[in-house]
Design brief:
This protein has ten helices and 15 strands. The chain is an alpha/beta fold and about 350 residues long. The site of magnesium ion (MG) has 2 residues, from loops.
Length: about 350
């Protein structure tokens, strides 16, 4: 509470006279989309617009106005999003899910030319982080420790020691990720997992670090969270960690990869060694923990893009904050008709 009051009072000090903006949040039915809307509601002056291709999206319960949009790969997607922004005077759009990230990254300049700022990462960041094998190669070039990675059938696999781990190079949400104990399993999963890569299995504590940089890429704040329990690729139990080593690690990784303005870094710590597993250029499903711990990433990003000074969020962060998650239900009276404006 103290942290929130602090942020609000600082924001009030720096708020220009212009009216509070309207903001469009995509994929309102997804876990991170819902979390972004919830985080933005901390500033009651914002007008929140929500979009999703599913007219029964739970995030539609949180916004002032809702819009049904086509799939992100449809030709009508970009014109439709722009039309929503222009008709409602929305100056900012938050992309949320993987399917949208490349579209918004590639069209950011186009949106900008129409007065709409995309609050997302660069096309280069989206590209290099999407393909896990290309990402591994890049880590090697940059001298960053990452699990040794092989393509199926690589001769070096003969000498690799078990356990190994197999996953799709373009996967997400831990889908098709398997630990492999022996040659027989390796042969089976190599043909079962599409587009597979194989890695040394790293035993250790797994962290996700939420990172906010300024628009030049300098770290503003990094908040590590230990993943205590994960279901379907999402943190259902997690805890914030006040570890300066992980913060410095996030600073180093952000600089090396030129990451702006926010990412989520996944790594595994084994003793003093930190293995980089993945960089996700999107809001994590565990965003509510980040926000509750004092780092309201969506609001801070909005301030950043509005050209407002950012108060140093690091000072008010709450560490050792444990998040326990469950389902949450919304009941819609007379809910037979889909919600949202077509
Ligand atoms: N080399 C590895 N060693 C041990 N665990 C791993 C390794 N690679 C991935 N994992 C585990 O699998 C999960 C999913 O892998 P990740 O590379 O993050 O793919 P996804 O895109 O599906 O999230 C990670 O969160 C981690 O728990
Ligand atoms: Mg991951």
């Amino acid at each position: 509470m103290a942290v929130r009051l602090n942020l609000l009072s600082l924001r009030r000090l720096h708020m220009p006279a212009s009216p509070p903006p309207s903001v469009l949040v995509m994929s309102a039915g997804s876990v991170p989309g819902f979390a972004v809307l919830q985080a933005l509601r901390a500033d009651g002056r914002l007008t929140l617009l929500a979009a999703d291709m599913n007219p029964r999206s739970v995030g539609f319960r949180l916004a002032h106005e809702n819009f049904v949009v086509p799939r992100a790969d449809a030709p009508e997607f970009v014109p439709r999003v722009l039309e929503i922004c222009r008709s409602r005077g929305a100056g900012y759009v938050f992309p949320i899910i993987d399917e949208e990230l490349p579209v918004f990254a590639e069209q950011a300049a186009f949106f900008k030319s129409h007065g709409v700022t995309v609050i997302g990462n660069t096309a280069e960041t989206v590209r290099i982080t999407k393909d896990k094998y290309a990402f591994f190669k890049r880590c090697q070039e940059l001298g960053l420790l990452t699990p040794r990675t092989y393509l199926p059938g690589a001769p070096e696999l003969e000498e690799a020691s078990f356990p190994l781990l197999i996953k799709p190079s373009r996967g997400r949400g831990s889908a098709n990720v398997y630990r492999i104990e022996n040659k027989k399993e390796l042969a089976f999963f190599s043909s079962y997992v599409p587009d597979a890569i194989i890695q040394d299995f790293v035993e250790g504590a797994e962290y996700t670090i939420d990172v906010l940089t300024d628009l030049k890429g300098e770290l503003i704040c990094a908040l590590p969270k230990v993943r205590i329990e994960v279901k379907a690729g999402m943190q259902v139990k997690g805890r914030t960690v006040g570890d300066p080593l992980l913060v410095e690690y996030a600073r180093k990784v952000s600089r090396l990869f030129d990451l702006t303005p926010r990412v989520n870094i996944q790594c595994i710590r084994r003793g003093e060694e930190i293995f980089l597993i993945e960089i996700n250029p999107k809001f994590p499903a565990s965003l509510p923990l980040t926000v509750k711990a004092g780092l309201n990433l969506p609001l801070l990003l909005l301030q950043l893009y509005q050209g407002q000074p950012i108060p140093d969020p690091s000072r008010g962060l709450v560490f050792d904050l444990l998040m326990l998650r469950t389902w949450q239900e919304f009941f819609v009276a007379d809910g037979r008709e889909p919600q949202g404006n077509a």
